[in-house]
Write a structure and sequence with these properties.
The chain is α+β, with helices and mostly antiparallel strands and about 230 residues long. The protein is built from 5 helices and 12 strands. Helix content is about 15%, strand content about 35%. The strands form 3 sheets. An 8-stranded antiparallel beta sheet has the order 1-2-3-4-12-11-10-9. The chain has a two-stranded antiparallel sheet with strand order 5-8.
């Protein structure tokens, strides 16, 4: 299965489910196998096209077209959790589907520095080094994502999702093979982290912090799903 860059999805947002551009994109991911038929789930505010064999789900809004794409991570050998359901952004899903391993996800950055805003007014911004490309592997953890994307715009937990991190606008470099020339594309990214539950190895300090230290612990959790959406 070929690799997938979120920048390839940017031109597909707002297109209808029958769009030839979306079909061509999915056929590329499925190649050399035929494109499987999706399981379609309709809700009052959204329609989901679930491609279990491709490891992803497409969310379409009525009269607005493609709104977001969920990509699901297969647990690494060190994780005992089952594959997750889609983590909707302000929506609810109750199914527990099983997704196949997704395409390899590549994040290409336009610069090799990450600018960290000052913690308080009057301080200077900090520049940190980062690689030109990051590949999400099954065992990629929250800390690694923050180190290349910066602090999230929002984060939280609850509802039908676990702990999540959201970056409302991320600049990524378009790959030349995407057919539109190189350039910078903006997308929104939301990552849900997989709570290892009883399999988590906690230090004495983690135990003392309890639930108050959940974000410190989550820095070591693997990513569970990645949502790519139109930037805000």
């Amino acid at each position: 299965m070929p690799s997938l860059s979120p920048t390839a999805l940017a031109s597909l947002f707002s297109l209808s489910p029958s769009s030839p551009q979306i079909t061509a994109f999915l056929e590329t991911l499925a190649s050399p196998s035929p494109l499987p038929q999706p399981e379609i789930k309709s809700y009052p505010d959204a329609i989901y096209h679930n491609y279990y064999a491709l490891g992803l789900s497409l969310c379409f809004l009525p009269n607005k077209g493609l709104d977001s794409v969920d990509i699901f991570n297969t647990p690494s050998s060190s994780s005992s959790s089952a594959p997750p359901p889609p983590p909707p952004r302000n929506r609810f899903r109750r199914e527990e589907p099983t997704y196949s391993p997704p395409p390899e996800i590549e994040l290409h950055f336009p610069t090799t520095t990450l600018v960290v805003p000052p913690a308080k007014e009057g301080d200077e911004a900090t520049e940190l080094p980062r690689p030109e490309k990051v590949v999400l592997k099954p065992n990629t953890i929250g800390r690694q994502l923050v180190s290349c994307l910066g602090e999230p715009s929002r984060k939280g937990s609850g509802g039908w999702t676990g702990l999540w991190l959201e970056w409302t606008k991320v600049e990524l470099k378009r790959r030349s093979e995407e057919g539109e020339g190189e350039g910078v594309v903006e997308v929104g990214l939301m990552v849900e982290l997989r709570d290892p539950g009883a399999a988590e190895k906690m230090t004495e300090e983690d135990m003392r912090k309890g639930m108050g230290g959940v974000w410190d612990r989550a820095a070591k959790w693997e990513w569970k799903s990645l949502k790519v959406f139109k930037p805000e």
